[in-house]
Structure formats: structure tokens, C-alpha cells
Amino acid sequence: MVDYIRTSDSTDIVRKQMGITDTNCSPKRGLVEVIEDTVDLVDTHGVETALQRAESTSLESLGRGGDRVVLHDPKDRLLGGECVIKINKWTDGVSNLIEVRNWCMVPEDLRHTLAKVYFFSSNHRWLIMEKASGDVEEQDITDLYRLYDNRGIELVDISEENVGRKKGMVKIIDYARGVFSDDYNTAMYL
Q1: Which of 40, 49, 115, 185 has its C-alpha lying 20 to 30 A from 170's C-alpha?
Q2: Residue 139 CB: number of other CB atoms within 10 A?
Q3: 155 exposed, middle or buried (CB, 10 Å; 0-12, 13-18, 19+)?
Q4: Domain assignments of the chain as residue spans, ordered by start
């Protein structure tokens, strides 16, 4: 089984870097095994088989993109709280890696605009993130662009598909690729 990083096991420095003080996500016994089984099935039998298996364990598909599938636990059997699981379809885990790095590196005063990353596997094949959904208006997106622009960070691809709401707050829920300008991404990783 792949190691994973839980916030409760992280050092205080990592917790502070990631902006994690507490979590509404409380993974229950067996969740990591279900996630790992799903990842293995993606590799060996494809996404459809993996999603069928995940759904038999109470997880449901919320959507999928080019690189990842997103699952949640509507009956609160395995995950607890309002979180989603993002599983990379490819073994490199690059989309999740970028999302974790973006979460860690975005300036602290902007972190409230991103859905929190709570847990991630050491190989970045999966992560558990705060769930934000609901109606987002064009003005919300305009406000996000303005907020980041005022900090000198260019957002390049924010749309209604990758933004949601959590307790009235607008959150970017998919910030792995195409969200921040190339200049910002390059500066973050130097």
C-alpha cells in the first residue's frame, strides 16, 4: 500500500504551510484501502471498472476530466464530512502534485479562495479535498480575478466548472492546471 500524508501526522511546519488547523474531513476505517483498490483498477481495468467498484463501496462519481476522476461519499460511510477524492488516471499523479503544490504555495491571504487539500498519497495518485459546490455567478468569478490581480497573480482559466461555494464562500475547486499564469507557476517552484 502507498503511504499517505494525513494532517494529523504532519509536522507543525507542514500544517502551517498547508493552512490546516482542523479538518471537517474524517476518513473512516477502510477508506485508504478503497481508494487504493480504485487506483489499482484504474491501472489494470480502466476507469469505468474502477468507478463501478468505488460505487459499490458507497462512493459516487462527481465528474471526470482529462486527468482525474472525482468521487464523493454522499451517504457518509467512508469519508465523513464534506470532502471529495480526486484520483489521477495516470501513474505520474502530476495533476494532484500540482494541486498540492499550489495549495502550499499560494499566499496565505488568498488561501481561503482554494478548496483545502486535507490528505494526499505519497505518489500523488489521489488526494482528499474540501468539497465546494453550488451556484457561482459571473460576478463571483470576476471578483476572484480582481482579488488575485490585486496581489500580482494572474488567473488564466477560472470558469463555473472549477469554482464552487462552501458556507457562502467562493472556492476554486480545480486548480491543478491552467489556473495560475506560467510566470506565477515558474516562480512558485524555483
Answers
A1: 185
A2: 9
A3: buried
A4: 4-189
pLDDT of residue 107: 87
Q: What does the angle CA 8 – CA 14 – CA 19 come to, to the nearest 5 degrees? A: 85
CA atoms of 33 and 121, how far apart (whole Å):
12
- The pTM of this model reads 0.80
Residues 180 and 113: beta-carbon distance below 8 Å = no
